[in-house]
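Most newcomers find our protein records easier to grasp once they have seen one. A learned vocabulary of local backbone shapes supplies the integers on the structure line. An example says more than a description, so a record of this kind follows:
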Amino acid sequence: MRLRHAALRALILALFLAGGCDGEGPVDAGPPDDAGGPPPDTGVAMDAGDVDAGPGRDGGDDACAGDGDCGAGEACLRAVCVATCGADLSGWDALLEAGLTPTRNLCLPASVRATRGAMVYDVVQGADGATTTFAIRRWTVDDPTPATVATVRVDEPAGDPWGGATPFLGGYLALSDDASLGPSDGEALFGYTVFAGGNVPGEVLRVDLATGDVVRYDAPGNFGAAWLGADFLVDGLAFGGVDAGQGLYGYDASEARAVHVGSGLGSFSGSVLATSDYVLAGGFESSPILFAVARADVADALSTQTPIDLSAVGAAPVGPSIASSFWDPSEALVATADYMGPLRVWTRTWSGGALTLAGERTIATDSTVFGSVHAVADRRLLLGHADGVLVVTED
């Protein structure tokens, strides 16, 4: 086990793929250059209670020809006055896809986000002395006042096993997939890891969105998670005491047990998403590895405790090769943010046991500025940046 984990310890630095330079959203940078260095500073560690939503212009009567037409703390972006959130917005117009019209720039920095209808959930990382805190919050674009659902406190175990290293948040926030749920119902999954020399301890945190109750699962090297009804999947090194090396794991709710679900994802962690028809799982070796597998096959592996070789049971998506770190900004899209490259989305279609990606769009040309995209109600998109989210509409 020690040799395997030592050989794979470099993969945890692939977790900077999940951080992006805006501190959120998965970003693929290929294999790490220095397995001995610390994870990068995402720049978004903050106290969850210290939030400024900014002026929150709606773009209706805020037409402008230049910054001089806007108020204090605002800039003119595509003929609309928006809050600057303390940043220089002068280059933003050139980065954004044509046809995107800003409506608001909300000064709500966070490490990860997810949306359900008009509701936005995010997680912010902070500190209380030597304790790391993760706060999951919810808010809407029209009422961007975050309400904290739950706060999780993480302390280094006795004996200094982390050597003073600090936990850092993974690049995912998965909301339970029951379509009948209201925007404030169901559960959420997110996780953290610690780069502690040859070990990569971490946890997946399961939060009840109605009560704020939290269940914690041991999950070294976790990189992604996705719901399968009441069950869920985790992409990582190990999960819940089951240690089969890098691969896909699951939690069987009916039996309250952790299960090794699948292998074949290489040595480096990747993302995972699940739909009613299929599961898309990622990993990395010398290049990105992605396999789309029928949901029924994954569910069967979980219930029977019989791992499957994803490379044999599944197939790579048809279409362009994309990064092994990805997320689903809406039900029909998959997105990636290439390190020092573009933020892109594709439509995804499952037919005849194959997943096809098509219709590539470049939402922004520089993921170090805009590192994530999520859809909300009324054809609006949230573009994540280091200081919050830019709300845009599509022509």
In short: The chain has four helices and 27 strands. The domain at 2-394 is CATH 2.120.10 (Neuraminidase). The chain has one domain: 2-394.
